[in-house]
Amino acid sequence: MLLDADNRPWGRWEEYLNEPGYRVKRIVVNPGSRLSLQKHEHRKEHWVVVRGSGVFTRNDDKIRVSEGDTCFIDIGDVHRIENDGDDYLVFIETQMGLCVEDDIIRLEDDYGRAG
To answer: Which of 1, 74, 76, 100 qualifies as a FRET site for 62, CA 20 to 30 Å off?
Structure first.
């Protein structure tokens, strides 16, 4: 059951589960778009790509990802995902720890939200 959703300049997120200590979202990244380069101080994340492909950045590594690939983000890891394809990139995000929207420190952002 959909609990919450929000459109973003890069696509959309939908929240399906929000329990103390963990949260599950479906994230859709539009073709040619990318999330902000960011980190979290209070949560880890695990992403599973279920559609499309793109480039996942974690700290100094850039990794090509596609359907079935997983990405683990530890507390403090600098990360983003970019959809460099012609189709939607969809992944399931599981957050673990203190799961609040304001635990995003944006380092770079294509949409003027950094800082």
So the answer is: 100
